[in-house]
Amino acid sequence: MTFFRNPSKEPLWKEEFSVLASDERYVTRRQFTKFLTLASLGMFVGNLWILLRSRFARARQFSSVKIAQVGEIPVRGVKLFTYPTPQDHCIMVRTGDDEYVAYSQKCTHLSCAVYYSAENDRLECPCHRGFFSIKDGSVLQGPPPRPLPQVTLVRDGSKLLATGVKGT
Ligand code: FES
């Protein structure tokens, strides 16, 4: 059995194997560079999309919607409403004689509906015991990562209007 056609030349297997080791490394490097270029392009497009989306969200205009009559609910009473779309559930609490606050009812942890606990004077999420301040919607306890988005309320005569949402 012979492994050499001509003992003075290259071994037979080298003649049959057409890709040189140095070329193989070159091809691999080229593929890796192509992969890096495509990955970088993908990340650039993704970041651009996030930037444009956040700019668009900031520029979003909210309409002014009447949500209640002044004095319609008692002090420490609650009214549920939707704003700015019918899918966005919100909660308004009358915290004083002439004080009202409103927040998104969707917990910032896993989107359970929060409710007002008059006993503890805070908003509570029953799913994982996340508690929010009634004053500003900040997280008091539990896993929620962010404050509740606050609905801006404006009094217009005897009407309470929702005019925007802060912290979305
Ligand atoms: S969903 Fe509200 S604390 Fe988890």
Overview of the structural elements:
The chain has 168 residues and is an alpha+beta fold. The protein folds into two domains: 12-58; 65-166, Rieske [2Fe-2S] iron-sulphur domain (Rieske Iron-sulfur Protein), CATH 2.102.10. Helix content is 26%, strand content 32%. The strands form two sheets. A six-stranded antiparallel β-sheet has the order 1-10-9-4-3-2, with no helix packed on it. A four-stranded antiparallel β-sheet has the order 5-6-7-8, with no helix packed on it. Strand 2 (78-82) and strand 3 (89-96) form a beta hairpin. It is elongated and about 105 Å long. The mean pLDDT is 88. FE2/S2 (inorganic) cluster (FES) is lined by residues 107, 109-110, 112, 125, 127-128, 130, 142-144.
How are the elements arranged and paired?
Layout lengths: L11 H5 L4 H38 L6 E5 L8 E5 L6 E8 L2 E6 L10 E3 L4 E4 L4 E4 L5 E3 L8 E7 L2 E8 L2
Antiparallel strand pairs: 1-10, 2-3, 3-4, 4-9, 5-6, 6-7, 7-8, 9-10
Bound molecules: FE2/S2 (inorganic) cluster.
Spans of at least 5 consecutive residues whose pLDDT stays below 50 are none
CATH topology of the largest domain: Rieske Iron-sulfur Protein
Distance, first to last CA: 78 Å
> How many E strands?
10
Main-sheet strand order equals 1-10-9-4-3-2
CATH homologous superfamily name of the largest domain? Answer: Rieske [2Fe-2S] iron-sulphur domain
Estimate nothing, just give the exact number of structural domains. 2
Principal-axis shape: elongated
Question: Summed up, what is this model?
Answer:
The protein has two domains: 12-58; 65-166, Rieske [2Fe-2S] iron-sulphur domain (Rieske Iron-sulfur Protein, 3-layer Sandwich). Helices cover 26% and strands 32% of the residues. The protein has helices spanning 12-16, 21-58, and strands at 65-69, 78-82, 89-96, 99-104, 115-117, 122-125, 130-133, 139-141, 150-156, 159-166.
